[in-house]
Amino acid sequence: ISYRKYTRRGTTMASVIEKSIRTVVTKAVGVLAGINRKRMPKLNAGNPYLIGLNQPMTEEKTIESLIVVGEIPRELDGRYMRIGPNPVFAPDPNSYHWFTGEGMAHGVRIKDGTALWYRNRWIRSNIVSKSLGEEPALGARNPRSDNANTNIIGIDGRTFAIVEAGAFPVELEDGLDTLKHNPFDDTLGGSFSAHPHLDSATGERHAICYDAMSQDQVWHVVLDPNAQVIRREAIAVDGGPSIHDCAITKNYVLVFDLPVTFSMKSVLAGHRFPYKWDNDHSARVGLCPRNGSGKDTIWCDVDPCYVFHTANAYEEVNGSVVVDVVAHETMFANSAIGPDSKRSRLERWTIDAKTQSVERKVLHDHNQEFPRVNEKYSCKLTRYIYSVALAMDADDEILSRPGTELFKHDVQCGEVQVRDFGANRHPGEFVFVADESAEEQGEDVGWLMGFVVDLENQRTELVILNAKDFCGEPQAQIHIPHCIPSGFHGNWV
């Protein structure tokens, strides 16, 4: 019902009535969802996101004596940090969804060739603080969710845990303890993303942000180098698409409007993550002008698929936009507890704004995820992409079964180097760290680092590789005497 044509007083009354209706409906939906959640069928094999590589940690640790094999490059001075879901108490395995677990950050501090400490800390959502018997953390929250569990980034000497779909960023201190829930010093004005992309030329970070409560628009959000929001431009969509990542070029931000959308049916069924594959939702990629109106977005049709992550994008001389992505054939088609893709590939998409079309080319036909590049080359043609292998058994959900290999893709000549860590040793996302002090400069001059979980010996190693000598001996392996659960994303800060 619209009351906008009436007086100021009438408009106020309308907003009160609307708010009351929404409150009643929301409560009713919540009650029905809770009932149906308890009726979910039992998982006979258990929930794969609560066991094995995903077994949650039950305590916070600070370890200051870490065994190091090899030599840590003395040029490295900072923290490797990664975050992921880690329930603070044992959830119902039949209804637990991997994407909704409470956030836990892990970090290793490196300086002067030494690993000074490892720490893990829960991000202090209200649920975590209550469970640990603490006062709530400071700061503003979205009342629907205050759980940040998907990425951890550094901006201007500050550290933020971030997530998509509604919850605000959480600012952390250097040792990973929660400082406050902080929507970028109250400049955000809405939801954020798990994947802001840094433009190394300007220092700005660009993101496409969606909110579970908004079905008809998403936003292009830009942070300046001081972590202040300087742009929040609405882009019209239909059906509430889940947009996990974006990509940027010199002139555009890419909007991946693909067939995973908000599902009220899933909400009513009690699903914790209410997004499902939607055969009726057209797949398209939008080219939104970085400094223009969202209304001027150029939409280009693409064959149905889903993209969690992009590697990089750039513009060709003829005006075409090229982006490298990991594309899944489908996503969230059946499972209510996690990603249910059975096939993914590294692909190059060439987007023609004139014909509003997308040409897809397979670069590597192996299940994989978490593509990363040297971020100094953002918005430029990149030669190297680093990604993590996933299982090739099509009978299983591949994201619940990581492989043991790391890939280095040379997209210029089509070669793929494969580094296999060995049986029961599973790498997570590896990040590239440029060697700023090297006399020789180049795209792969630097290091790769990431966690490798050794299931057999129940430990984790932070492995540091020379990126140019990808298959050679690690430069260093920092031993952490327990398994760190499979997580999502991290960075070197």
Protein architecture, described:
The structure is a single chain. The protein is mainly beta. It has 3 helices and 34 strands. It has helices at about 10-40, 125-130, 265-270, and strands spanning about 60-65, 70, 80-85, 105-110, 115-120, 140, 150-155, 160, 170, 180, 195-200, 205-210, 215-225, 230-235, 245-250, 250-255, 260, 275, 285-290, 300, 305-315, 320-330, 345-350, 355-365, 370, 385-390, 400-410, 415-420, 425, 430-435, 445-455, 460-465, 475-480, 490. Strands 2, 29, 30, 31, 32 and 33 form a 6-stranded antiparallel sheet that branches. β13 and β14 (about 230-235) form a beta hairpin. The termini are far apart.
- Mind describing the biggest β-sheet? 6 strands, antiparallel
Shape: globular
Classify the oligomer: single chain
* Low-confidence parts: 1-11
Q: Kindly estimate the percentage of residues that lie in beta strands according to DSSP.
A: 35-45%
Number of strand elements: 34
Determine the mean pLDDT. Answer: 92
Radius of gyration, taken over Cα atoms and rounded to an integer in Å: 22 Å
Total helical segments: 3
N-to-C CA distance: 50 Å
Secondary-structure-based class equals: mainly beta
Into which percent range does the helicity of residues fall?
A: under 10%
List the main descriptive attributes of the protein structure presented here.
493 residues; 6-stranded antiparallel β-sheet; mainly beta; 3 helices; disordered N terminus
